[in-house]
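Sanity check

After download, print the first record. It should look like this:
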Amino acid sequence: MKSKNLRVIIPLCVVVLAVVAWVSSLAVGTLSAFGWKDVVMLCPLGALATMLATKTLIPRAVIALAIAVVLILLFGRAFCGWVCPVPVVSKLRDFFKGKAKEETGEEPKETPVSSCAGCTSKTCGAKRGAKADARHMVLASALLSTFLFGFPVFCLVCPIGLTFATIFLVINLFSAGDVTWMVVAAPALLIAEVVLFRKWCTSLCPLGALMSLVGKGNKTFQPVIDDSKCLEASKGVSCGLCGAACPESIDPRHPELSAAAWSECTKCRACVDACPAQAISMPFLASKTEDAEK
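Expected structure tokens:
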């Protein structure tokens, strides 16, 4: 099974498990605060917000934040690529967009595939995540507003929380007839963020910004290219499929010319699947020889 299918199945399984647990009245929490009884793993941004809102060092939040930092150092932004439900919700937008094209008879535009080798564009090497960008501004604003108002403001509009809220509200609506204004507000906000703000994950998400900051120390599961198999390195063929496949705009063949830094990698393995020569692997730690080649 290809990675792209697993990246849809796994978040859906997590959502289904959370829903089943909620319906069964099992106290396992949600994706932003899951656990069992007194053991709770908070969202790292939620943990920071909770402490800033209360202006207190809360032991549970500190422990949760420390665990999150360790996990990000070990796996980078893998949460964004394999667990977060927001990219799956975004796929629904692309699905309906594709249906609309079929109905109107429009042919989807093909994405040009080319290598970054020899690129002279001044903007090509401007790496997202290498310096502070819009996401970091949103992160700073979210933390500052939480400190000033004494309430985690961003949690009200977090698309992860809104995804779960929408599901739970719909279940309540049909099972208990519980009609509240949030039945309309939660999905409306979710649609606005994921559908209207098409670049939410890459341009606005403060959780992604926090992970990319910590992820600068991540050295694991980075794509490694076998030059003896790579079409460009071994045969001089212009390929660029691995860079074109990356949803974060990282080109494993030419990382120095990529539009994003390695800290943005979500370990999604799209580049591995896209390589026609099967020249890309993602070992836990690259050998010194492989590091030198990169």
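If your output differs, re-run the checksum step. Summary of this record's structure: Residues 3-23 form the longest helix (21 residues).
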